[in-house]
Design a protein that fits this description.
It catalyses: Thiol-dependent hydrolysis of ester, thioester, amide, peptide and isopeptide bonds formed by the C-terminal Gly of ubiquitin (a 76-residue protein attached to proteins as an intracellular targeting signal). This protein is of the alpha+beta class and 819 residues long. The chain is built from 22 helices and 31 strands. Strands 18, 22, 26, 27, 28, 29, 30 and 31 form an eight-stranded mixed sheet that branches. Strands 8-13-12-11-9-10 form a six-stranded mixed sheet, covered by helices on one side. β27 (761-771) and β28 (779-786) form a beta hairpin.
């Protein structure tokens, strides 16, 4: 037996075979973005299956004593010159024929081809064991190591991050038992037209009764007139097939009930019912997949935003590192590129997770973006972290960049409750002033926000005449059956959008405590504070009259500098009377039916015995949300009660306006009762939950406080208690029993949200743009201003921008101008 064989035998007990569910991280270092393609390759611990770059593997060995590692190196293959290319060294790009990424026929993700070599390396002497060496080793060694080599599955494959197939369709739930009417309808093989508008293309036949209608109107005015959709809304018949796409191999089938393209395993039978022989049909129209591919390649918005018509100069170095697209991850790439240009997120002392810190280092250090070589980083572990448990961000589907930004800010808030919080850079207070029009008395409330959402008043476009003329031509083309011409883009002044945000809003059903009745009121929204960094979302995505999602094709002259000083909240004015703090009438909730002042059992003599039945039921979900923000339970209950169960925004406004009240955290006392309601069934604490938390080393008082703050949900209570350790310092942590700290009522309520404030003058430093018809499809890129030069970050490509399309952005990022 050789020396290497003896060493392997001695460490055999530390070599594990991956079990189902184990991830073998063969693509990414746990502490950096080193990969098998990096210099030195990647070392995978044969016990934990974590990957380590050459800079970290020695440290891991010294700390754990683990000696056996898989050493994986990948070398890029040299591409042969293709006689059909133009001397660039790259084969000619094929036109996409499939709505997919990283799959044959789909959109190219520009993946390089590599040759992979795998060895076993034994530390500390780094002795190598090749696959040939294993053949001569004892069976027990060879089998254990070979199982690891064979069973190892890359985390990238587990997460399916390199591929996305938009053509995978599910069987419709209506297909098996679809009702078809015996109405004698037989469909001819050609000559179809819409039964409403006589349109002769984009036609859909309902599979229940055989009626033919035109399809949906597309965002640019082309397509149909929505008559097939309208017919479904009238009839409820769910499935329709697109005529012209029927071939022996299948057809486009849409389920209006499931709102998606679907499979119909009984399609030949369903078509035969109306006299259509699927085996003799030929394709005469583009499928929906082909139409969507055409949209994703269309000239216009895509070309302008990506600056495709220009020869862009590549950039590299610190802060100029690209991020690889992991399959519809461009929304994540764009948001994180912008966030890590903000000093609060660059600070190393920010208490975020290791993967976030690693991402920041990867983007800012320049280690993966050196002269002439934009390697870029693939944030696989980070994407898995931020998407864990989320129904959308855990998938490979396209997402809304605005929703992801707020999701990540929420993660930061949860992880930084006891330390430096970078999300404070965005946090600001909004003041809402409501004036009762009958009494002219006012009410002031404040709420926390992280983003300004600007409406887009389409009726105030500066090129309205051009838009109206285009609409007239479209209607003429529609009536004549001619193809419509391209619609012009609406030109909207930014000042108009800002004015729409700040103008007074009329409230028609406002309950006025001054007149003790519902009346009309006006609401004015202003900034109570100005954040260091201001995010503005242009509300481009909306719904048409038929509830079909659409994106507004608009150009907005967003300014480089912005002065919002005129929108500063002024607070209560001299001589202005406030609305009295009187509770609204008792709430009649569905689960508490109250009939008359006497209830169900009382009479005029003993009605007082049953008066507690008239107490309103509070919305537990709103109370719980407020408690999660760190406010006292009783204050949260009062906020929900005094705002009439009208939702989290109104309750939060009440909390912000009453935090200084001396009885802020005192128990809620309903009007007409002489004392606090005491312990109710909703306030009782499960003993098993208390015992679980106490077993972790916390006192009974601490466990009680955590459960009350999270509505008795154990998992949230555990998360809450570890996130509020600073708040619990006055309470001794013990193995059990009661703490030495005072009662909850004797402690000061926790402070409200911390906000920064300063002048309302800003300069634009970044914007994120979206291309496509919906937030659920298309592509995102971002432009960031670095050293007075605009830079475009298009996933892994980082270039100097020549014509930044500032008028077509979706999210705009401003920073405060310090004079």
């Amino acid at each position: 037996m050789t020396e290497v064989s003896e060493i392997l035998m001695s460490v055999l007990s530390t070599i594990r075979v991956p079990r189902p569910g184990d991830r073998v991280h063969k693509d990414e270092c746990a502490f950096s973005f080193a990969s098998p393609e990096s210099e030195g390759g990647l070392y995978v611990c044969m016990n934990s299956f974590l990957g380590f770059g050459s800079k970290y593997v020695e440290r891991h060995y010294a700390k754990t004593g683990q000696r056996a590692y898989l050493h994986i190196t990948r070398t890029r293959k040299t591409q042969k010159e293709d006689e059909n290319n133009s001397g660039s060294g790259d084969p000619p790009k094929k036109k996409p024929t499939r709505l997919a990424i990283g799959i044959e026929g789909g959109f190219d993700v520009e993946q390089d081809q590599y040759e992979e070599e795998v060895k076993v390396v034994l530390f500390p002497d780094q002795q190598e064991v090749t696959s040939e060496d294993l053949a001569s080793m004892p069976d027990v060694v060879r089998e254990r190591v070979s199982h690891l080599l064979i069973a190892a599955d890359s985390v990238s494959h587990t997460l399916q991050v390199q591929q996305w197939d938009g053509e995978v369709r599910q069987e419709s739930k209506h297909a098996a038992e679809l009702k078809q009417l015996d109405n004698g309808v037989k469909i001819p093989p050609s000559g179809w037209k819409c039964e409403v508008c006589d349109l002769q293309e984009n036609l859909w036949m309902n599979l229940t009764d055989g009626k033919i209608f035109c399809g949906r109107r597309y965002f640019d005015g082309t397509g149909g007139n929505n008559h097939a959709l309208l017919y479904y809304q009238q009839s409820g018949y769910p499935l329709a097939v697109k005529l012209g796409t029927i071939t022996p191999d299948g057809a486009d089938v849409y389920s209006y009930d499931e709102d998606d393209m679907v499979l119909d395993s009984k399609l030949p039978e369903h078509l035969s019912h109306f006299g259509i022989d699927m085996m003799t049909m030929e394709k005469t129209e583009r499928t929906m997949t082909e139409l969507e591919i055409a949209v994703n390649q269309r000239v216009g918005e895509w070309e302008v935003i990506q600056e495709s018509g220009s020869t862009l100069r590549p950039l590299w170095g610190p802060g100029l590192t690209g991020m690889k697209n992991l399959g519809n991850s461009c929304y994540l790439n764009s948001v994180m590129q912008v966030l890590f240009t903000i000093p609060d997120f660059q600070t190393k002392s920010v208490p975020l997770t290791m993967f976030v810190t690693k991402l920041g280092y990867g983007l800012l250090s320049g280690e993966y973006s050196k002269s002439g070589d934009q390697v870029g980083i693939a944030p696989r572990m980070f994407k898995a972290l931020v998407g864990r448990g989320h129904p959308e961000f855990s998938t490979n589907r396209q997402q809304d960049a605005q929703e992801f930004l707020l999701h990540f800010i929420n993660m930061v808030e949860r992880n930084c409750r006891s330390g430096m919080n970078p999300s404070e850079a965005f946090r600001f207070l909004v003041e809402e002033k409501i004036v009762c029009q009958q009494s002219q008395k006012a009410k002031y409330t404040q709420r926390v926000d992280y983003m300004v959402q600007l409406p887009v008043p389409m009726d105030q476009a500066t090129n309205m005449e051009e838009l109206q003329e285009a609409e007239r031509r479209r209607e003429e083309a529609e009536s004549s059956g001619a193809p419509p011409s391209a619609a012009p883009r609406a030109q909207i002044p930014f000042a108009v959008c800002l004015a729409a945000l700040s103008e007074p809003e009329t409230l028609t059903d406002f309950w006025s405590s001054a007149v003790q009745a519902k009346t009309t009121a006006t609401k004015i929204t202003r900034f109570a504070s100005f954040p260091d960094h201001l995010v503005i979302q242009i509300k481009k995505f909306t719904f048409g009259l038929d509830w079909v999602p659409k994106k507004l094709d608009v150009s907005i002259d967003v300014p480089d500098t912005l002065d919002l000083s005129a929108l500063r909240a002024m607070g209560q004015q001299p001589g202005e009377e406030l609305l009295p703090e009187v509770a609204p009438p008792p709430l009649m909730t569905p689960d508490v039916e109250v009939k008359g002042i006497l209830g169900f059992h009382g009479n005029e003599e003993d009605d007082s015995l049953y008066s507690p039945l008239l107490s309103p039921v509070l919305d537990d979900s709103t109370v719980s949300q407020l408690c999660e923000m760190g406010f006292p339970l009783e204050a949260c209950r009062k906020a929900v009660y005094y705002t009439g169960n009208t939702g989290i925004d109104a309750a939060m406004n009440w909390v912000m306006g009453h935090m200084e009240d001396p009885d802020f955290s005192a128990p809620l006392v309903y009007p007409g009762s002489s004392s606090a309601p005491g312990t109710t069934p909703t306030e009782s604490l499960p003993e098993e939950h208390l015992a679980t938390i106490i077993s972790m080393g916390f006192s009974r008082d601490q466990a009680t406080r955590a459960l009350r703050a999270t509505n008795n949900v154990l998992e949230r209570a555990v998360d809450w208690i570890f996130s509020h350790l600073d708040d619990l310092e006055s309470m001794d942590v013990s193995e059990g029993g009661r703490s030495e700290g005072g009662s909850e009522a004797s402690r000061e309520p926790p402070p409200g949200p911390c906000v920064r404030d300063g002048p309302g003058k800003y300069e634009l430093f970044a914007f994120i743009s979206h291309m496509g018809t919906s937030t659920m499809c298309g592509h995102y890129v971002c432009h960031i201003k670095k050293d007075q030069q605009w830079v475009i970050f298009n996933d892994q490509k980082v270039c100097a921008s020549e014509k930044p399309p500032k008028d077509l952005g979706y999210l705009y990022f401003y920073r405060r101008v310090v004079e």
